Amino acid sequence: MATYSCLLSVTLSFLVLFSSCSAQISQVTSRGRQQRIQTQCNIQKLNTLEPQQRIEAEAGHTDLWDQNSEDLQCANVAVLRHTIQNRGLLVPPYTSYPQMIYVLQGEGLHGASIPGCPETFQYSQQQSRSRSQSQSQEGKEGRGDEHQKVRQIREGDVIALPAGITHWIYNNGQSNLVVVSLCDIGNAANQLGQSLSDFFLAGSPQQEFQGQQGRQQGQQGHEQSDSNVYSGFNQDLLAEALNIDRELVSKLQRSDRQRGCIVRVQDEFQVLAPHRREQQEREEREQEQGRNGLEETICTFSLKHNINNPSLADVFNPRAGRSSSINAYVLPNLEKLQLSINKVVLYKNAIYAPHWNPEAHSIMYFTRGSGRIQIVSQRGDSVFDDNVKEGQVIVVPQAFAVVQKAGNRGLEWISFKTHPLAMINQLAGRGSFLSSTPVDVLANAFNLSREDARKLKNGRREITLFSPLRSSSDY
Ligand SMILES: *[C@@H]1O[C@H](CO)[C@@H](O)[C@H](O)[C@H]1NC(C)=O
Questions:
Q1: Where is the Cupin type-1 domain (predicted)?
Q2: Terminus of the chain with fewer CB atoms < 10 Å: N or C?
């Protein structure tokens, strides 16, 4: 073990040399990038994390990971998972930090309101005329609802939401719609420190949902209520500002604890959205052709991208699996969010190259299967070595090295990364520093014979995803 950790520290100091050059390059491209809130990561041991708390709602529930765990505090993020039943509507919180949402299962509609942007989804003249004839409640002007873009969402979609954007999710599918959300508390956009303090525009979150910080503030005299943000305003002022009567203001302000954050839609749910197939075909075309050259403004930028399509994989090995990334090149919006995501599908017993993240924390959520993970600190200490399975979260702090090996049923995961163009530095295989360094440098650095250095350099010729060796299928 001692020699192993020594080797690793040699390896890492090598990598520091190699990465200082790429750091300079990335500084050039990251002009004006804001600093992430710095954290202390005195990690001796990492853990598999499971949800600590469940908050029931009228049409679903929300599972929360413990925001105070050392692991999540190190990365300065929070993780939560919403399960939305059929006809359930996740009521929009607005947040002071960016969020990345991954659709684990099911399908539905997603809407986001970007402040100051036009309502581009409109009824046509014809539609509104026929609607106003058939439905008298449409109003005297015969005008239907107009709103900002509504997207169809399905398994594998990644939704990237900048701070301050209100959004909602409606389950119009047959099964539960389950989404996992990474809240990037440590993002430069968040100036409120470390709290999961969502403001709620509607509905009424339970107090727990407003985070530990919220509770502490409550103890210090600033009373936290479980109401939405409108309920704090003076009724007359609000009535005038909205040009509505006071009775309606009271309805807007009332808190309805029972329903929680996911409410059930009683009647027909009417929003404007393109047909699923039509939208899906257009998106797939766009994803394959790349961007269409139109300049993206804050009003037109894309918030969503699907990461599951096997034909869009960045790395594919028929004997090991595939890996796909959505970063700021693919979804320019991520430059603003300072986040990216990687999805890996490892086949039975395959290995994902031991690697480290030079610029990002990585927050892994296992989406399918099981396997074994080992994580090693910068100092070469093993801080995690255990089996993992679907539904668990593991944080891999920046510069820690990690290796994943799939079990007999394969292993799949997503990694949220706190950098818009997060790359990995491999410690084995093609693409690693071993394969790109002269044999004599390796021989001298590790005190090996030339022959051994050559074996070390050329032993594994695959990139990133390694097929299992016949002899090593189980350990
Ligand atoms: C390097 O390796 C040789 C042969 O294996 C050994 O005799 C020598 O002591 C090693 N040097 C160091 C500094 O470990």
A1: 46-250, 305-454
A2: C
- Distance (angstroms) between ligand 1 centre and the Cα of 9 equals 18
Q: Which residue in the block uniquely carries the two structure tokens 């939405």?
A: 228
Count the domains in the chain: 2
460 in any annotated domain: yes
Question: In sequence order, what are the beta bridge partners of 368?
Answer: 412
Question: Tell me, what CATH number does 451's domain have?
Answer: 2.60.120.10
First and final CA of the chain: distance in angstroms?
18
With tokens 């994902």, the residue in question is 352
Question: Do 239 and 339 fall within a single domain?
Answer: no
Do 251 and 326 fall into the same domain? no
Distance 448 CA to ligand 1 centre (A): 8
Q: Tell me how far the alpha carbon of residue 226 lies from the centroid of ligand 1, in angstroms.
A: 67
The residues, ordered by sequence, that sit 6+ positions from 116 with a Cβ below 8 Å of its Cβ are 298, 299
| d(CA 442, ligand 1 centre) in Å | 14
Residue 3 CA, ligand 1 centroid: distance in Å: 13
Q: Tell whether 163 is covered by a domain.
A: yes
In a domain, 292, yes or no: no
Kindly give the distance from the C-alpha atom of residue 17 to the centroid of ligand 1, in angstroms, as a whole number.
Answer: 24
Q: How far is the CA of 459 from the centre of ligand 1 (A)?
A: 22
**Are 80 and 164 found together in one domain?**
yes
Per the CB < 8 A criterion, the answer to whether 315 and 325 are in contact is: no
Q: How many angstroms separate the alpha carbon of residue 15 from the centre of ligand 1?
A: 23
For residue 379, the CA-to-ligand 1 centroid distance in Å is 23
Give the lowest-confidence range in 201-205, 360-364, 421-425.
201-205
Q: How confident is the model at residue 27 (pLDDT cuts 50, 70, 90)?
A: very low
Position 35 confidence tier, pLDDT thresholds 50, 70, 90: confident
Place of tokens 């099964």: 175
Which of 18 and 326 is assigned the larger pLDDT? Answer: 326
Distance 224 CA to ligand 1 centre (A): 66
Q: Strand, coil or helix: what is 420?
A: coil
Element (DSSP H or E) covering residue 440? helix 439-445
Q: Is residue 359 included in any domain, yes or no? A: yes
Q: In which domain, by residue range, is 147 found?
A: 53-276
Tell me what pLDDT residue 33 has: 56
Same-domain check for residues 102 and 250? yes
pLDDT greater at residue 11 or residue 267: 267
pLDDT digits (tens, 9 = 90+) for 173-188: 999 999 999 999 888 8
Tell me how far the alpha carbon of residue 445 lies from the centroid of ligand 1, in angstroms: 11
Distance between Cα 446 and ligand 1 center (Å):
10
Tell how far the Cα of 443 is from the centroid of ligand 1, in angstroms. 11
Look at residue 144 and tell me whether its pLDDT is greater than 80. no
Percent of the chain past pLDDT 70, that is, above it, reads 74
